[in-house]
Amino acid sequence: MKTALTIAGSDSSGGAGIQADLKTFSALGVFGMSVITAITAQNTCGVTNIRELDEEIIADQIAAVYDDIPVGAVKVGMLSSAEITRVVAGALVKHGAANVVVDPVMVAKSGSRLLKVEAVEALIQFLFPIADVVTPNLHEAAEIVGFPVGNRASMERAAIAIKAMGPKYVVVKGGHLPGAACDLFYDGKEFAYLTNERIETKHTHGTGCTFSSAIAAGLAKRMPVFEAVAVAKRYITVAISHGFSLGKGVGPTHHFYELYSQAGVVGDGE
Ligand SMILES: Nc1ncnc2c1ncn2[C@@H]1O[C@H](COP(=O)(O)OP(=O)(O)OP(=O)(O)O)[C@@H](O)[C@H]1O
Ligand SMILES: Cc1ncc(COP(=O)(O)O)c(N)n1
Q1: Interface pTM (ipTM) of the complex?
Q2: Which residue intervals define the domain Pyridoxamine kinase/Phosphomethylpyrimidine kinase in the entry (predicted)?
């Protein structure tokens, strides 16, 4: 059985965070495990409270998994503070984590800050050098590199700057671009664009979490990195096109296995 671990925040409404990650792992046929960094009181309208877990229980959760179970890939999402970021990075190094996907979650769609401003430096310093893939959206890329990112030229400049911070691969997500949903993949040598038509929907809660978990699921299945990203792009496109209204605000994406096998995202044999 292939396994993947998510280290992220809990979203009580089930659309983003740990919950989206585990649903994605399951739909892609990978056994999911979780380390919770923070608990958010959250629904489709926004985040009403955040409680960080203490560093000891976070480190102990990571140790409990790695000391016992082979971890095929790990996705890192909401980290909230610089201290949590340092502890997670240190634990991943200590346990020799492989196939590390870092989604540099900073602000929820609803506007709440999920990573303190002063923690961005720790993310760059401690996590980027041990990451295989880093997946910023346009806003996150801009905060990381310190210049505006809003078109293909600036996405390429940002990808080069982020690659220089240590990860093996960078995916700058263009979900917030005008027009097509166009993501940039960069391996340090060449740029490749993964493009899909924009789906007109407001139900996109958790798209970033879902995309990065799908990449981790692909790596856990030992796909080459570009193939894992391409499968994740197909997965998120199907997930958004079947996003649905739930609650009064921004509804979630869709994670039911049948849909993905019908759409050819996962083969029956996987
Ligand atoms: N309306 C859309 N139609 C098609 N694809 C989309 C749409 N919105 C986002 N995507 C795709 O979803 C993936 C996630 O991108 P996005 O830029 O939304 O991430 P994000 O901002 O980190 O997500 P989140 O806001 O959940 O944190 C990317 O592959 C992006 O191209
Ligand atoms: C716990 C947690 N992690 C990540 C996100 C980002 O997802 P989105 O930007 O879609 O709200 C979130 N809202 N909550």
Answers
A1: 0.96
A2: 11-254
